[in-house]
Design goal:
about 475 residues; mainly alpha; 25 helices; about 75% helix
């Protein structure tokens, strides 16, 4: 009895070893076939895959590899026979009907292919995976209209109005039916308003085309007309207007958005800041004025007034450049800095009305920069920067970050020259705006010394538009004045 058990154990152990060796051999064949696929040697890969299917016809991995290889070699009839045999062996794998339809279409039997796809959908009514699989087979063969019909019929079957929104929008975009694509995204927004950012990112793929943004605006405008109280649709319409550079229409929409959402100026103020960044200065000024019109009780009152003054300052620079261009082309004399005095007056009003506020600190700093960069009024700039140093040393960091960045970009040479007289360690606890004003003062002192050497030349340097050119001219003037005559 003991000997019989030992023999049985040895036979079982030997059989297990043989099966393991056989499995290892099949695995090596599969890996070799996959390597040949990657190398593009499909004919050699087919031989290996056929051996694997003969050795184990039930293995789906072997079946799918052989189907893939037949398809690549355009042996569609062999692939169809393979898929049909697999379906007969596994009746539950009806999803293979979608693949069979694709292969049948590739073989030239378009009517039968359509019949197979319809059968697959009929066997699985309302099944999202089957709908997507059949539509993908159609898309791969550029049957876009049929794919769209499949998704739309599938949406009716699932009874979910936002099913297949992204798939349909992409298909419509591929066919350049931009209006239909936007309609799909509006479906999504109607059900999920928080997806506004995502929808904007998807629509942005075709707003670079004039036709695309134009059609999108028409469709969204129609949606706003149907639902005038929908803030999300209005926000999308305003975004499209900005994308097209139509900031004035966007301002109109943001007025309504702010009113409908009871934002107390927040939405309008955010738009004004964006318009200022995008150099739509006139529209930005109107938006800032609208926010400040709410009165001093609003937390945005002073920031809006400061923004309005900043927009007026930017408008003055634009008008100055236009005026200079007209002088060069026509020889006529235009009014210099038509709105610069108005901007400075607005800054001074902020300082007068709220002398201890962060807005006043920023306004004073802007007054100093205008005096130095635009008017080349060194005494006025020095006075303003010294006032900044005397202001309360508190306030949000972002109020001074832009000022320091502008200073370092424009007056880098002044930092190295003036470090001897104003060491950094002395002002380690000073907020950055005061720090910036301090170094500006140092540079102005240096420039005033240069100016005294050649005042008449320095007056002419006021025509230069950038501080670096003025500084270079002043230094050149100083050198010329110190050079001995022979």
């Amino acid at each position: 009895m003991h000997a019989t058990r030992s023999i049985s154990f040895l036979l079982l152990f030997s059989a297990a070893g043989m099966l393991l060796a056989q499995d290892q051999e099949l695995t090596r064949k599969l890996q070799l076939g996959q390597s040949l696929e990657q190398a593009g040697e499909w004919s050699r890969a087919v031989i290996l895959y056929e051996d694997l299917v003969r050795s184990d016809s039930l293995n789906y991995v072997y079946f799918d590899a052989l189907r893939r290889a037949y398809t690549q070699l355009k042996e569609y009839r062999k692939a169809i026979v393979l898929v049909e045999r697999r379906i007969s062996q596994h009746p539950g794998e009806t999803f293979l009907l979608a693949h069979a339809g694709g292969l049948t279409f590739d073989s030239g039997e378009t009517v039968r292919a359509d019949s197979l796809w319809k059968t697959a959908l009929r066997l699985h009514p309302g099944n999202r995976q089957m709908i997507v699989l059949v539509a993908q087979q159609m898309q791969e063969r550029r049957l876009y209209e049929q794919a769209i019909h499949t998704f739309e019929s599938g949406r009716e079957a699932t009874k979910n109005p936002v099913d297949f929104v992204e798939e349909l929008a992409l298909l419509h975009s591929a066919r350049q039916s931009y209006g239909a694509a936007v309609e799909e995204y509006l479906r999504l927004l109607g059900a999920a308003p928080h997806q506004l950012g995502y929808v904007e990112s998807r629509i942005a793929s075709f707003t670079m085309k004039e036709e695309g943004v134009q059609r999108a605006r028409v469709v969204v405008q129609a949606a706003v007309d149907r639902s005038p109280g929908d803030v999300t649709f209005r926000s999308l319409l305003a975004w499209l207007a900005i994308e097209q550079g139509d900031h004035r229409t966007a301002l109109k929409e943001y007025r309504m958005i702010d009113e409908l959402s009871k934002a107390n100026g927040r939405e309008l103020y955010g738009f004004a800041q964006r318009a200022l960044r995008e150099q739509a200065f006139q529209v930005a000024a109107e938006a800032f004025q609208a926010v400040s019109a709410a009165g001093s009780s609003s937390v945005l009152y002073l920031p809006a007034r400061l923004g309005y003054a900043r927009a007026m300052e930017s408008l003055s620079l634009r008008d100055t450049m236009i005026a200079a261009s007209s002088v060069e082309t026509s020889g006529t004399t235009a009014e210099s800095f038509p709105t610069l005095d108005r901007a400075v007056a607005l800054y001074r009003e902020i300082v007068h009305d709220a002398p201890q506020s962060d807005a006043a600190v920023q306004a004073l700093y802007r007054i100093g920069l205008v005096a130095f960069e635009r008017s080349f009024d060194l005494d006025g700039a020095l006075t303003a920067f010294r006032q900044v140093q005397g202001m309360p040393r508190a306030g949000p960091a972002h109020c001074s970050a832009r000022s320091r960045q502008a200073l370092h970009r424009t007056y880098g040479i002044g930092l190295s020259i003036s470090a001897h007289n104003w060491p950094c360690s002395r002002h380690a606890l000073t907020p950055r705006l005061h720090y910036s004003a301090l170094w500006s003062e140092a540079l102005i002192v240096i420039l005033r010394t240069m100016q005294s050497a050649c005042r008449s030349f320095c007056k002419r340097t006021a025509a230069f538009r950038t501080p670096s050119l003025r500084l270079y001219a002043a230094i050149s003037c100083r050198r010329n004045a110190s050079t001995p005559r022979h």
